[in-house]
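Lecture 7, part 2: worked example. A protein chain together with pyridoxal-5'-phosphate.
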Amino acid sequence: MINDAPLYLDHAATSTLRPEASAAMAAISEAGHGNASSQHGPARAAKNALEEAREQAAEIIGSDRPHDIVFTAGGTEADNLAVAGVALASDRREVVVSAVEHKAVLEAAASLERFGYRVTTVGVDSDAVVSPASVAASVSSDTAIVSVMAANNEIGTLEPITEIVAAVKDVDPLIPSPYGRGPGVRVRGDHGEGDRRRSHELVIAQVRWPERRRGSCM
Ligand SMILES: Cc1ncc(COP(=O)(O)O)c(C=O)c1O
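Predicted complex, written out as structure tokens:
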């Protein structure tokens, strides 16, 4: 406690909203009440706002395919879609996750065991870093998905996603890389400018999903 105010130490899990984001959300909730799937004026306005948000989200993660952006109601739903949804649509039967994935990812992966999928968990070092070599040793031609978080939601570790993508490229699995807080988080202090740039590269790696499987279920 400082001056009786609680000291908040959980910014890696969830942090304050930028004022611009808060203002944009307030404007939409006041004026953007149309059903984006209808035909009338307010509906078209809502649809335009949605498409604009899609383009902004694509730009943030370095994608030139805004129409591939799928909005979900929350992180757990996104994890289910990216892990269980994609695995169930694949003809491969193996899923690889890091030991430090969010519980929602681990449970989505575990739920696949019921359907006959093998789930392999890759360990981490004392800084919670996943080694690309360990991931490479865990994949096979039957690996549908490798899920490694880009930024750890508890201790902020940035995982070497670009290197992991390179290490498994022969197997060519889908690589959902949960980045719950990543795009909006400002990396400061000891991490320096270099790491900040790196975190943007990580997000770009996250959207390099193989062309041949586009449209299968996302
Ligand atoms: C990767 C990941 N999945 C799931 C969640 C949970 O999100 P929600 O409460 O929106 O379902 C979080 C939240 O920190 C997250 O970082």
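The longest helix spans residues 41-60. Confidence is low (pLDDT under 50) at residues 183-218. Keep this in mind for problem set question 3.
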